[in-house]
Amino acid sequence: MQELNQLITTHETLTLLDLGPTSAPNITYLTGLEHKLYSEDLLAASAEPEYKTTGPDGSPAFQLEKFFAENLVFGKTKFDAALCWDIADYLPEPLVKPTIERLYSILKPGGMVLGFFHTRDAGPNVPYSRYHIIGHDTLDVQPVPRFVLQRVFNNRQIENLFQSFKSLKFFLARDYIREVLVVK
To answer: What was the pLDDT predicted at 3?
Structure first.
């Protein structure tokens, strides 16, 4: 968070994307720095029944084309940074890689992605959380019990997920979280 905060406090008018649940503190903090902020609760959108279907073998499937025709669509807008929080750990499996690919396509060159990834020690009952930026290096974390942890990525899997990006940095955070900063 500190490295991303360095970007957002030292540059004039950036275009930022917050992919978590709407957060009034995030809106206040980021727009207070005169940045343009777009918000899209991607995880809530992924839970909508209209995107779920049945595969040819009768197993549950996901309508990817319909989902991405209606979500993460910003026209010609390109972003300087995206706040992904811990959504990758909670997204339905078919959405994870395409979401990262879409992020890559909507980021400016040099654009950053901040993501949080749970460690194995977190346990399967870790609640999804809403992250509120309350200072230049402080987050308030509020559990949102609506979603269930789908997976825990190891470092190699995270590297593979962001393989198209230029650089990737891991930071150890508290509460069994790895903070990952990725640069396009």
So the answer is: 81
Q: Give the count of domains, the chain.
A: 1
Instruction: Give per-residue pLDDT as tens, 93-106.
Output: 999 999 999 999 99
SS (H, E, C) 108-128: EEEEEEEEEEECHHHCCCCCE
Stated length of the chain: 184
Name the token pair of 165.
């990006």
Token match 């029944």: residue?
49
Please, are residues 127 and 145 in contact by the beta-carbon 8 Å criterion? yes
pLDDT of res. 78: 98
CA distance 143 to 128: 6
Q: What is the CATH number of the domain that holds 38?
A: 3.40.50.150
Residue stretches of the chain with pLDDT short of 70: 122-123
For residue 121 the two structure tokens come to 């020690």
Q: Where would I find the beta strands (DSSP E) of the chain?
A: 15-18, 36-39, 52-54, 60-62, 79-85, 107-118, 128-135, 138-144, 167-172, 177-183
**What residues make up the domain containing 134?**
2-183
Helices (H) and strands (E) in the chain, counts: 6, 10
pLDDT at 122: 64
